[in-house]
Write a structure and sequence with these properties.
single chain; alpha/beta; Spore Coat Polysaccharide Biosynthesis Protein SpsA, Chain A; 14 helices; globular
Length: 320
């Protein structure tokens, strides 16, 4: 018990975080909440549970930075990353046992929706390939979800009742082995404010020779998407595609990466035109217009070095 802790990152999470904390405290003595400058009653909800350690950031540092803060503060052998809208239904013993296996650096459990059904397509995925990103950007996976690329990516061919090696359980319910975490330097904070930081970490973990396990006997009920819902539509679009391109920049070969850039640019134009027609306003230009410019410039200009942020501003600066 003393070697295990839980980190929960909050941002305007007052509606959900109370039940998540109560269930976490029932199963673990060490719980840390890292709050990213919430403007609702999140801090009041956390303060009502004195056994929880609170780290209150004055600004929204992003999910990756907040997770890094929490894990550093605990300094334990095993740390569970848990979303504030995820309620533990089981103990942590099976996840810890999986992480103790030779060569295992992380383990994810099974996420259930509010009706008690597995969150198929989210609770377990494989690493995205360039084809995955292209199909996502062009809307193919939404229009034709049974295609082979999407089935492979979202593990629609996997029995979620069976434990085994995995590639990408989500950071919403992920047990981290701290020695592996420290060796890799934790989450990459360039993935701001959220999306793809957990995928990038698990990809680096795999490339470093570590295994990740899927342990369906460990379960949590997951509401899903509460923080994402707090983002305005324009910021959501720009953040998601920016981090998608950032992931591709780090993990794909140049030709494959450029193909993703083309698909993102084309998909942005399609969504921009459809959004204007549907909303009868130019509002979609703010989001998808920015995404189109970003993807187009990254296609033709020199890619940033591995430590650089792939943002619209950084691409603009590279032209000067």
């Amino acid at each position: 018990m003393n070697a295990t802790g839980i980190v929960i990152v909050t941002w305007n999470s007052a509606v959900h975080v109370g039940p998540a904390l109560d269930a976490a405290l029932d199963r673990c003595e060490r719980v840390v909440v890292v709050d990213n400058a919430s403007s609702d009653r999140t801090l009041d909800v956390v303060h009502a549970r004195p056994r929880v350690r609170l780290i209150a950031n004055e600004t929204n540092r992003g999910f990756a930075a907040a997770v890094n803060q929490g894990i550093d503060a605990l300094d334990l052998d095993y740390v569970l990353l848990l979303n504030p809208d995820a309620v533990l239904l089981t103990g942590l013993e099976d996840l810890v046992a999986a992480c103790k296996e030779p060569g295992v650096g992380a383990a994810g459990g099974l996420l259930l929706d509010t009706a008690g059904s597995p969150q198929t397509g989210f609770t377990l995925r494989r690493f995205p390939t360039a084809a995955t990103m292209i199909f996502e950007a062009l809307g193919v996976n939404r229009l034709w979800p049974s295609n082979v690329v999407n089935r492979r990516y979202r593990c629609l061919d996997v029995d979620l009742g069976r434990a085994g090696d995995a590639e990408q359980p989500p950071g919403a319910f992920l047990m981290i082995r701290s020695d592996a975490w420290r060796r890799l330097g934790g989450f990459n904070e360039d993935f701001h404010p959220l999306w793809f930081e957990d995928v990038d970490y698990l990809k680096r973990l795999s490339s470093g020779g570590w295994r990740t396990r899927f342990v369906p006997s460990a379960r949590a009920r997951h509401h899903g998407g509460h923080s994402v819902g707090s983002l305005d539509a324009t910021r959501k679009v720009v953040c998601w595609y920016s981090n998608l391109l950032r992931y591709g920049q780090r993990h794909f070969r140049p030709t494959a990466y450029r193909a993703v850039c083309v698909a993102v640019a084309m998909g942005a134009l399609i969504r921009l035109a459809a959004g204007i027609a549907r909303q009868k306003s130019l509002q979609p230009v703010l989001g998808y217009g920015t995404v189109f410019q970003l993807a187009s410039r990254l296609l033709f200009y020199r890619r940033p070095h591995a430590g650089g942020k792939v943002t619209y501003q950084s691409v603009e600066a590279s032209k000067k």
